[in-house]
Amino acid sequence: MKITDVKTFVVDNPPPQTGGRYFIFVKLTTDSNVVGYGEAYNATFGPDVTARMIEDCAARHLVGHDPHDIETFFRRAYSSGFSQRPDISMMGCVSALEMACWDIIGKEAGKPVYKLLGGQVHERLRSYTYLYPRSGSVFPGETESRRNVYNDPDLAAETALAYVAQGFNALKLDPAGPYTAFDGHQPRLEDIDLSVRMVKAIREAVGTSADILFGTHGQFTASGALRMARAIEPYDPLWFEEPVPPDMPEVMAEVARGTKIPIATGERLTTKWEFARVIENRAATILQPDLGRSGGILETKKIAAMAEAYHIQVAPHCYCGPIVGAANIQLAATLPNFLILESIKTWDGFHADLLKQKIEWQDGWVIPSKEPGLGVELDEAVCEAHPWTGGPLHLEMTPDPLFP
Question: Measuring CA to CA, how many Å separate 160 from each of 27, 110, 149, 166?
Answer without folding.
Answer: 37, 40, 9, 10
